[in-house]
Amino acid sequence: MAEQLWGGRFSKTTDEMINDFQASISFDKRMYREDIEGSIAHAMMLAKCGIIKEADRDAIVSGLKVILGQIEEGNFDFSVDLEDIHMNIEKRLTDAVGEAGGRLHTARSRNDQVALDTHLYVRRQITEILRLIEDLQAALVETAEKYGEAIMPGYTHLQRAQPILFAHHLMAYFSMLSRDFSRFVGAYERADIMPLGAGALAGTTFPIDRQFVKKELGFGDIYTNSLDAVSDRDYILEFLSAASILMVHLSRLSEETILWCSREFSFVELDDAHCTGSSMMPQKKNPDVSELVRGKTGRVVGHLMAMLTTVKGLPLAYNKDMQEDKEGIFDAIDTVKFSISVYAAILRGMRVREDVMRRAVTEDFSNATDLADYLVKKGMPFRKAHAVSGRAVAHCIEQEKYLQDMTPAEYKELSDLFEEDIYEAIAPETCVAQRNSFGGTSKEQVKMQLERAKRMMREETAKHGALLQKEPMLL
Ligand code: ARG
Description:
Elements: H1 16-22, H2 25-28, H3 32-48, H4 54-73, H5 85-97, H6 99-103, H7 110-146, E1 151-156, E2 159-165, H8 166-191, E3 193-194, H9 210-216, E4 221-222, H10 226-231, H11 234-260, E5 268-269, H12 288-312, H13 325-349, E6 351-352, H14 354-362, H15 368-377, H16 382-399, H17 408-414, H18 422-425, H19 428-434, H20 443-468
Parallel strand pairs: 3-4
Antiparallel strand pairs: 1-2, 5-6
Helix pairs in contact: 3-4, 3-7, 3-9, 4-5, 7-8, 7-13, 7-20, 8-11, 8-20, 11-12, 11-13, 12-13, 15-16
The structure holds arginine.
């Protein structure tokens, strides 16, 4: 085994099994880019403050850039003996550039280094997730506009409730995703705080310039307490909460997609390219993608629970438990990015069966509220109108027909307020058009929603662009 960078006070090398147990290189190597960016900013700061010589800084910076190239080309041998990404890179640098490499870790600990890397990594990943959310929102808007006329039954308790525009249903998910977008922006803001300079926990004896590092790396703020800087994992908890809520939204959409493409509903048909078959049953076309997104929601929620539990009893400041933050967040990032992307594809490839939806709203009682509202508009108190409409429904069930099939005489028997215009009043198109209150399902309201949505997407794109501007330019 190679000698450890921290081996000075030890008389034995680490037990092989312990070594494997505590190493994080197998997963934290993902943050190689952030580790190198952070080290370049740190070396520049050390030289600027006169803590290392400019020649040492130059050797460090060019050495790190060579290492970046090696990693990206797959020419870097990651070593478990060197524990983590920080020591793998530092050791390789020192092997390459000699003493200058040994000066890089001046006024720094792995505790503030790993915090810095993770902040940079999470921040960068959030900008990608924001872009994907925007695209999924665009897919929702496109689909809503493509099927702007389609009327379907809206449900409560999964029982047909009132006719709605399919576009209105889709746009509910748009609103959910807008909140997801702003939750991720919030997580970004908390990740956008610079921890380097906290040292192991208490600050450093060297005359460092934390503002310089903050500026070089494009951070919005700086941790004002060194203990907090190395102990804070709130931004990870926030990221995982935002990710969990987003997954719960996609899971609900998945559940609906699965229902809608079942034979029983037949409201939509998924693109063949997005489904799989059965090895035994030749007729099967399964919505596996939606099922997987629904299934993967559990693991993201699990990562949130795991992290809350990990942090819960930790004393300040750094504890090795915190190394457990990475695998969960990496997996959550992959899962969320994949799930959003596949959902945008599913929506764009989906064929909506407007005819089936239309039939559904004529073969049910989802216009019963409208029947009651009709009577109210003619002067009857709502509670009484509700009872009359309920009796009409009961009568129809007995006669095996629907409200629109009742004769004028049958209507008159229930109330003499009914006139010929009742048939018009309970037609699905009227039921939809009449719900013209703000945020309702009428075409006019849905059109306004779509316009607001497009405006919101423009604002989101601008926000996303502004965040991208903050990306470090050191490489
Ligand atoms: N691999 C460690 C982690 O991810 C880096 C920090 C190690 N610090 C320490 N004092 N052992 O948390």
